[in-house]
Specification:
17 strands, 12 helices, eight-stranded mixed sheet, alpha/beta, 33% helix, 440 residues
């Protein structure tokens, strides 16, 4: 086994992840120096910023993108690599605000978001190990009953990809564990190498004319009809600003920062597994996710490593030893991996909103400032949708999707920057206790 070591989660470089170690290209962009002029300045070099840049540059606008560290440094380059339909949790709750048509639009956009990723990969020939096939895993019989309802709803929405319920006696054909009582296979969702996707999209954005700058943290924003976005060594003057910082907004804009909670999410990667063992774990090479509050999600990499993630941490503190934190969870699912080495362990912050719906809109007191954040676990696909919707709104195109998202209000987490994480941690503990008692 690997020696237990303390690995810093947050540095200026990419996390010490399997993704960083296996990236198929290296990209570098200069820090901003001096003055740049643009139609649109984008802050954040993750999927939100990159896809907004692609969509805007494609429409002929001049774009400058500022990344505080490196392209894909945050959740976009650290996540579990699962590309799953949907953009929110329980979107029916928003019907009083957006009506039945708005709820249906959200559900359809949850399907469209995956297709945007598919199209992006195909159009720009991005090598990111995109593999189709995903299964929701049922922890309890009522989960399986819910999957049957989900399947019928998806068919009613015109979903064109294969869907299939997996009964208890069939589960070994999907996952080599006795932990689950059924599943829902979705061949329109899947998994990929997220950092390679981000790098490929950065190259695509520059090919379309966007100007990208790394190591260019924004220090101040002067708002007004013309915006001035300052960094340590320069500034950007632009007509429009897009804030795509998500969990790393911090104090750059306190209004938006208060509406998104940074929550820690962690992944471990095994050594490459023998083909027979890899096939035993995930016979159909699908990404999978269970239904618990503290969910597990996992998949195989292109070189047969098990990438096992989850354990969303709301305390605001990262575990000192990610492997020690995550390995027992992996062994509960796959005890046959007891003697398998862990080669990589990493984590980072994802953005959680109080109502678990992505926050896409514009500031009411600054109509030339747009934002996208708080993807709550659906970031790989929802970020790509956000880029499209923001570009439509900025360019004055009719955008039902942007209008629907803009109608949903988002509360500010109580307790301020230092207390909101502990308060939410207590709330999540309550839900876990209810789940353990069988009443959640």
């Amino acid at each position: 086994m690997n020696a237990r070591v303390r690995i810093p989660v947050h540095t200026e470089q990419h996390a010490p992840s399997y993704y960083a170690a296996s990236a198929n290209r290296r990209i570098e962009y200069p820090p901003l120096a001096g003055e740049e002029l643009a139609d649109v300045c984008i802050v954040g070099g993750g999927f939100s910023g990159l896809n907004t840049a692609i969509e805007l540059a494609r429409r002929g606008l001049s774009v400058v993108l500022l990344e505080a560290r490196q392209i894909g440094w945050g959740a976009s380059g650290r996540n579990g690599g699962q590309l799953i339909r949907g953009v929110g949790h329980g979107v029916e709750q928003f019907e009083p605000l957006i009506g039945a048509d708005g709820v249906r639009a959200l559900k359809l956009m949850g399907l469209e978001a995956v297709e945007i990723v598919r199209q992006r990969v195909e159009e720009f020939a991005i090598d990111c190990d995109l593999t189709w096939g995903y299964c929701d895993l049922a922890n309890r019989p009522r989960d399986l009953a819910g999957f049957a309802e989900d399947m019928e709803e998806l068919k009613g929405l015109g979903y064109r990809h294969e869907l299939r319920l997996v009964q208890p006696h069939e589960m070994r054909s999907v996952v080599g564990s006795d932990r689950y009582v059924g599943g829902l296979i979705d061949m329109g969702s899947g998994h990929l190498h997220p950092l390679n996707l981000a790098f490929g999209e950065a190259v695509a954005a520059t090919q379309l004319g966007a100007r990208l700058f790394e190591h260019s943290a924004v220090t101040r924003i002067d708002y007004g009809p013309e915006l001035k976005v300052h960094t340590a060594q320069g500034h950007v003057r632009a007509k429009t600003l897009v804030l795509g910082c998500n969990a790393y907004m911090n104090d750059l804009n306190p209004t938006l920062g208060g509406k998104v909670l940074p929550a820690g999410s962690y992944v471990i990667a095994t050594e490459p597994l023998p083909t027979e063992l890899a096939h035993e774990l995930l016979p159909q090479n699908m990404a999978v996710c269970d239904q618990r509050v503290a969910l597990d999600y996992y998949r195989l990499s292109a070189d047969n490593r098990l990438l096992f993630g989850g354990a969303c941490h709301y305390s605001g503190r990262d575990p000192a030893d990610i492997e020690a934190y995550m390995r027992p969870k992996m062994l509960q699912v796959f005890p046959q991996l007891k003697n398998v080495r862990i080669d990589y362990q990493w984590g980072g912050m994802i953005g959680i909103g109080a109502n678990r719906l992505p926050q896409i809109g514009r500031l009411p007191d600054q109509p030339n400032v747009y934002f996208a954040q708080a993807y709550s676990g659906h970031g790989v696909n929802a970020t790509h949708l956000a880029g499209k919707l923001l570009a439509e709104a900025i360019c004055g195109e009719q955008s039902q999707g942007f209008d629907v998202f803009s109608k949903v209000p988002h509360i500010t987490f109580p307790g301020g920057r230092h207390l909101r994480s502990p308060l939410l941690a207590l709330g999540m503990l309550w839900y876990r206790l209810k789940e353990a008692a069988g009443i959640a």
